Amino acid sequence: MDFRSNFWSTFKKKYSIYMILTILFVVCSFANENFLSVNNLTNISRQLAVTTILAFGETMLIISGMLDLSAGSVLALSGVFSVYVYKNGASLLVAVLVGILTGIICNLINVLMISTFKAPPFIATLSMMTMARGLALLFTKGQNILQLGDYVILGQGSIGVIPIPVIFLAAIAVLTWYILNHTRFGRSLYAVGGNEEAAIASGINVHKVKYLAFVINGIFVGLAGVLFMSRVNAGLPNGAINYEFTALTAAIIGGTSFSGGIGTAGGTLAGAFIVGFLDNIMNLTNVDSYVQQIIRGAIIAFAVIYDIRSKNKRTKSMLGRIEDKQPEKKTA
Amino acid sequence: METNIKLRVSQIEKSFPGVKALDKIDFAVKKGTVHVLCGENGAGKSTLMKIINGIYQPDSGQIFIDEKPVKINNPMQAKNLGISMIFQELNYVPEMTVEENVFLGNLPVNKFGKVNWKEVRERTKALLEAENLPYSPTTLLKDLTVSDIQMLEIIKAVSNKSEIIIMDEPTSAITLKEVEKLFQKIRELKARGVSIIYISHKLDEIFQIADEITVFRDGTVVDSRPKDQLDIETVISLMVGRKLTNTYPKEEAPIGENLLEVENLNSTGVFYDVNFHVKKGEIVGFAGLVGAGRTEVMRALFGLDPITSGNVKIKGKKVNIKKVKDSIENGMVMLSEDRRRYGIIPMRSVKENTTISDLKKVFYRFRNHSNVERKIVSEMFKTLKVKTPTLETVIASLSGGNQQKVLLAKWMLRNPDILILDEPTRGIDVGAKYEIYKLMNGFVQEGKAVIMVSSELPELIGMCDRIYVMSKGTITGELKREEFSQELIMKYATGTLTSNEVK
Ligand SMILES: Nc1ncnc2c1ncn2[C@@H]1O[C@H](COP(=O)(O)OP(=O)(O)OP(=O)(O)O)[C@@H](O)[C@H]1O
Ligand SMILES: [Mg+2]
User: Fold this and answer.
1) Does A200 touch chain B (CB under 8 A)?
2) CA-closest candidate to residue B433, choices B239, B225, B163
3) What is the pLDDT of residue B474?
């Protein structure tokens, strides 16, 4: 009896996100007959690919106690650069590499501010968000770059029924899972986010961990930039606004904790699809787009409150004094 | 007279995933008495206290206050019932000021909700002055020592008008003088009719202050009696279920050549001219009052804090220690005194907390070898007798003593040559202490060395081959085993004697 309730509570904690996803999927299938069509499902995944790739980068950063608010802007900058060199005769491979390199450089600046100059990640990446967007607009003089030719294959092409962006997404999902579970770096991410001072005292090179986390994030963001521009067949300096929030939402819904030290690749993937399915079903059932926004916001609030509540429960049993601290916040 | 009973719990049960922490506990505290709880790490003492304080809900059972059944859903309700608690695990926000900490949870506000900071400042100041504490209301907690913070917690609890005060290992981090002060406070409180529940692993202390003693073992009460009917030996055997023949199982190990030599180590404003050496086979103690700079020297040596000048040689080779990794790779590791801050990664598993010191052991050939990881961790846990439901259990849910053992396991995994232990037995039960001493013995038998910083003189005297004494940032004395005496150490520690005078 005791054993069963324990088993059930661990099971629930570990797999609830996947159960929610499954239930949502079933509900959506019944709510609208178009939902289950191959066409619709490949479309959803194609659209989701970009933000979900960002979400994996955010997941690693949040686990290690940081975050990236500049993802959407850096994505646009990377995409615009990539498209530009392609239009000027570079090969597709070179164009992709330029996108990724741009992502890496911007994120190196992020982590320089954060790890070397000790700026709070929120502020550092907020400034990068503004700078990168400004640079993208300056570089294109605010004009969209149109007619990308064969560049579109990355975003619009398919192999069999599987859209190419989805293949990238799958690869990055697996890569993130692998990094988090099978590398020393991944284990260190959890340690740094869980208790930075203890990580240092255990001999972990926290600087290196933070730098590497941002470089990987840069690669993901750059690649997302290429896929995004390619899918819309244009270099949009004003594209992907607020994508970082969609990515953060996916990570949070997927159980990544903003207090650091907790999160999984599978959770984030599920979180992204929960958001994607909800958006899609609201579109299919003609929910007013303003209402959609409200609902999306409410979901974030829900996820964050859920995170804080479960965190409180944890710390409460760990420390037994979090309750004492609650009232102070209320008066403040 | 039954009406004498202030607090009573009856048939309390509580389970956590994988453990039955409390099994049908009956327990009563009389008005105006000090009731001591003792028992091994993980026996369930803190769990019962957290139930009384409303942090946990019991699975079954009843709490009575003044023989009236009550239900305590949260610490706020506990407070209203006149219960307050000093927690075992210090958990503080480093950036918070002393005054913010003192008024945490009950800041005085006017009717618009604006905090009256002037009042906060004044009342904190009065409190600090009354207790003779040498820091200001605006000092940040991160600038205080563990002992200062512990004392602050005590004062806070005492200044509330409580009828029942629970103290979970209040003296684990304070100095002897502060212990005296605390005991004085406790006697005053007793005289006012306050009931005190006191948890401690320090048995001599227990006998000084207790009126009644209750011994826990594996979630049950094994005995509960007035102090006069018990003695230390009986309590120990009740706790561990067997007799411990001697408290300090010192074994002589062959002493070899120098393993560590420290020459003229300086850190401006922190410590100066620190010279010492440690030989193979030695257990070297560092005594001194809190604030003498012992922890600071060890931290610098370990690469956590910078040094201004000085030489460090390990095995005769000069080493340049800039960061923790440098010292680990030279075979020197350190167990910190502040477990919460520099030790555990609270939300991760005991397994991860152990292997974090040596990831290469479990991550190689492009993957995590989880069965290897589980195997080495469970072997280490077996040697150190770590009590945990599973290897995946989150470290924060272990009892304090078991967390300490996990951290020790983490460093033993590196198979170090020099083990620096800063207050290693803080919060650890007698049985586990004994095991740690044994471990230190076995360790030096292999031609390695231990440096033990401790504020407990009996422990240093019992286990060390040599003791260095520090005072005000430098080493003031060195004693060989045959010279050990509490008086001499205290003289060096208070700076009333220096090495030169002796010679
Ligand atoms: N929040 C929790 N989740 C899971 N298990 C817990 C939790 N809190 C305590 N336990 C378990 O309950 C048992 C009793 O723990 P408790 O902290 O009460 O011990 P203790 O007697 O205070 O020990 P110590 O002297 O080391 O402080 C231990 O086995 C511990 O691992
Ligand atoms: Mg305890």
Assistant:
1) yes
2) B239
3) 94
